[in-house]
Amino acid sequence: MLPRSLQIAAALAIAGTACVVYGVAIERRWYRLVRHRLAILPAAADGPESLTVLHLSDLHFVRGDERKARFLAGLPRADVTVVTGDFLGEPEAVERTVDALAPVRGRLASWFVLGSNDYYMPRPLNYFAYFRAKRKPRRARTGRAAELIALLEAVGWQNLTNVRREIELDGLPIELLGLDDAHIRQHDLTIAPRRTPARFGIAVMHSPDSAPESAALGYDFMVAGHTHGGQVCLPFGGAIVTNCSMPRRLAAGLMHMGGAVLHTSPGLGTSKFAPFRFACRPEATVLELRRVDTLDSPRDVAQFGSAQRSGR
User: Fold this and answer.
1) Sheet holding 32-41, edge to edge
2) pLDDT digits (tens), the chain, 312 positions
3) What is the distance between the alpha carbons of residues 258 and 153, in angstroms, rounded to a whole number?
4) Distances (CA, A) of 125 to 13, 16, 129, 141, 273
5) Domains and CATH numbers, the chain
6) Contact, 214 vs 203, CB < 8 A?
7) Region for 136 from its dihedrals, namely left if φ exceeds 0, alpha if ψ lies in -120 to 50, beta otherwise
């Protein structure tokens, strides 16, 4: 009979091993689609009553990523599709990534910004480094960002990296902001101030580190990624780390930020050097934006409506 302490140690080792096997073999590929209804479009006679936005992020595609490609191919087509960076898990997957995204192009528009893993080749990292308040910059080899941009633009995607535009979507006037990755200090906030605040303001960014400034400048709706939702979460305690300045409780999902609404995607992938998720399933999100005057009740705005989840 083993001593009590050894029994406890053995039980913990078995439980830990089971969690790792589950996170690597099951949860990191247990993709799901989540839907939210947001009544935030301006109450006006012109423009549509609703717009559907498919938000994808942190795909981290590698060669042979067939299950992820099949999941994307089965997603519903939206009015607008937006990808908030980190398409690539390795530079060799550029062509595979562009092919896999073909079925999800938006009916009205397809937008993207890049993340650090698109600019630079990923490298192994000591997992405990994520717990440091400040991490030392590391040398990195340049990836294939230029080729990725060129191939995406050739099939109709619009690159929003550090741009501000005035556009219309189905008759709705929009002021559109796209920001590069703030995590590697590539974002340019000098372009961010609004010029036509009467338009509905949309801000697209990789890291939610840019969200507070964008909200303060008057953008109404913001989308971001980068955090992976924490990637490893405690079942009742949420994300352990976020890899950005956002509080852990805001690692993913919908939140009010001043007068704006921010959606931070948990993403669909992981670094190939950390192929593990726990209590944080990979996710694609459909955000149905509706006019304020089409609300069933004022309660829908405060609670963002009820989320619908479908696993695959």
Assistant:
1) 158-159, 109-113, 80-84, 50-56, 283-291, 32-41, 308-311
2) 667 777 677 666 777 777 778 788 898 899 999 999 999 999 866 788 899 999 999 999 999 899 999 999 999 999 999 999 999 999 999 999 999 999 999 999 999 999 989 998 777 665 555 445 555 555 667 888 999 999 999 999 999 999 999 999 999 999 999 999 888 888 989 999 999 999 999 999 999 999 999 999 999 999 999 998 887 888 877 778 877 777 777 778 999 998 999 999 999 999 888 888 988 999 999 999 999 876 554 334 434 544 566 665
3) 34
4) 24, 21, 7, 14, 8
5) 31-311 (3.60.21.10)
6) yes
7) beta
Q: 40 near 292, Cβ under 8 Å?
A: yes
The two most distant CA atoms of the chain are separated, in Å, by: 78
φ and ψ at residue 10, rounded to 5 degrees: -65, -40
pTM exceeds 0.85 for this model = yes
Tokens 């559109």 found at:
176
